[in-house]
Amino acid sequence: MEPLLPHAKVLLTMRDEYSWAASIRATIMYSTSEPSKLCNTTFLLRPLNMEKRRPADADQLFELGMGVSPEPASTTDQEAWQTPCLSFRERVPPTDRLLELPSEPRLAAALPVSGRPRPQPSEEFPRLKRHEVL
């Protein structure tokens, strides 16, 4: 299949696997009284009509689907983090089309992508993943 824009640049922002896994745990998953159990997975299973399953089944399906285990610093986290990056690299050969940048704001700001100065935002980016909102 030919790409629609074969010469377009593709930007892949990279986040380290530890902060990525911590973010997944803090926003999508959160611990109940037993650390090995997950909760609040029903909304992810609703499109599959699986929300009526036992919570243990939902937790296992969530872990399989998301690729993130409830245990910190597991190899599953690293594999789940690397999968989308590898997929992008396969689709966009590592030529001058693929630009990889760290998502850490200070590092990303230091690396010019287009050669033009970056416009400064007029207001702070909204923080939608705050715990008060959830």
Automatic annotation (TrEMBL):
Gene3D superfamilies: P-loop containing nucleotide triphosphate hydrolases
Coiled coil region boundaries: none
InterPro entries cross-referenced by the UniProt entry: P-loop_NTPase, Sulfotransfer_4
Region (Disordered): 66-85, 97-134
Compositionally biased spans, kind Polar residues: 72-85
Stretches that traverse the bilayer: none
Basic and acidic residues composition bias: residue spans: 124-134
Top-level taxon of the source organism: Eukaryota
Protein name: Uncharacterized protein
Organism, as annotated: Macrostomum lignano
